[in-house]
């Protein structure tokens, strides 16, 4: 089954709403409509930027989509600081990142938390981008495939095949995030193939053939071509390089198969 590549730009805690508007305008200008037949491109700004990004994208009928970096596992109520799935859906978000390693490490999110947030996203019609990834010690011990398979199984435990078919999975080795130390294309392929095999086990072969598996960790225009050229890698979750319009447009164009903008 042909899977359309997805390039998702996770801005993390960068750019206020005015800067967000400027960046989205530049990306849209650099990436004409023809590219969007071959690649889905989404921006994942901080919560405070989403309304401005929505207004721009809807007002100018841009072909980019947008999403959020996190979602509450709760529906509503006394959860100070939390943002619900229904709030994000009302703002027109397509995607929500769930279980990013920075949330797992810095905010103590477990596989159970990630599963609850994944359910909250699905319940509200959002596509969760469920993140997994091993630290350096696990990679150096050679246990990375088993570790990622376990993390994925824990993060998707009990979901139906239909629910799993609506999810995007992102493999992000923690040692490659923001470090400039990108995994080799073969490293990315090895884990993404194991992810797809695990989806076949948890759901079925058809769901596994259709689910999009992204790689994340120091992706740039220099390495994206080789990475998304791997059989089981269907795009990228991009951090630092998504904050530069030209670079993000260029790497999206490469994922689309070119030509360069
Ligand atoms: O969500 C994005 C990843 O954490 C990758 O970040 P990076 O491209 O800055 O390494």
TrEMBL record:
Reactions listed under catalytic activity: D-glyceraldehyde 3-phosphate = dihydroxyacetone phosphate
Positions of substrate binding: 10-12, 178, 218, 239-240
CDD domains: TIM
Pathways involved: Carbohydrate biosynthesis; gluconeogenesis; Carbohydrate degradation; glycolysis; D-glyceraldehyde 3-phosphate from glycerone phosphate: step 1/1
Principal subcellular localisation of the protein: cytoplasm
Pfam family, one: TIM
GO molecular function, a single term: triose-phosphate isomerase activity
Any one GO BP annotation for this protein: gluconeogenesis
Keywords, ordered alphabetically: Cytoplasm, Gluconeogenesis, Glycolysis, Isomerase
Active site location: 100, 172
Subcellular locations according to the entry: Cytoplasm
Name listed for the protein in its UniProt record: Triosephosphate isomerase
Organism expressing this protein natively: Rhodococcus qingshengii
Source species taxonomy: Bacteria, Bacillati, Actinomycetota, Actinomycetes, Mycobacteriales
């Amino acid at each position: 089954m042909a899977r359309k590549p997805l390039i998702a730009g996770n801005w993390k805690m960068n750019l206020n709403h005015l800067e967000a508007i400027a960046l989205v305008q530049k990306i849209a200008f650099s990436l004409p409509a023809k590219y969007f037949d071959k690649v889905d491109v989404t921006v994942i700004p901080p919560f405070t930027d989403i309304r401005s990004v929505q207004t721009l994208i809807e007002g100018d009928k841009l072909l980019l989509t947008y999403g959020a970096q996190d979602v509450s596992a709760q529906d509503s109520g006394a959860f100070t600081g939390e943002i619900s799935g229904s709030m994000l859906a009302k703002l027109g978000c397509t995607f929500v990142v769930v279980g990013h390693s920075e949330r797992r490490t810095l905010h103590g999110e477990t596989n159970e938390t990630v599963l609850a947030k994944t359910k909250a996203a699905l319940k509200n019609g959002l596509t969760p981008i469920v993140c997994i990834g091993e630290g350096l010690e696990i990679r150096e011990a050679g246990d990375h495939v088993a570790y990622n398979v376990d993390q994925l199984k824990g993060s998707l435990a009990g979901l139906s095949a239909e629910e799993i078919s609506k999810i995007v999975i992102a493999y992000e080795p923690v040692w490659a995030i923001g470090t400039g130390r990108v995994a080799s294309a073969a490293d990315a392929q090895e884990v993404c193939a194991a992810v797809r095999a695990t989806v076949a086990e948890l759901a079925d072969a058809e769901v596994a053939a259709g689910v999009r598996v992204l790689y994340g960790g120091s992706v740039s225009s220099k390495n994206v071509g080789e990475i998304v050229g791997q059989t089981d890698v269907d795009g990228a979750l991009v951090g630092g390089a998504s904050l530069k319009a030209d670079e993000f447009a260029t790497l999206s164009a490469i994922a689309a198969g070119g030509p360069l903008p």
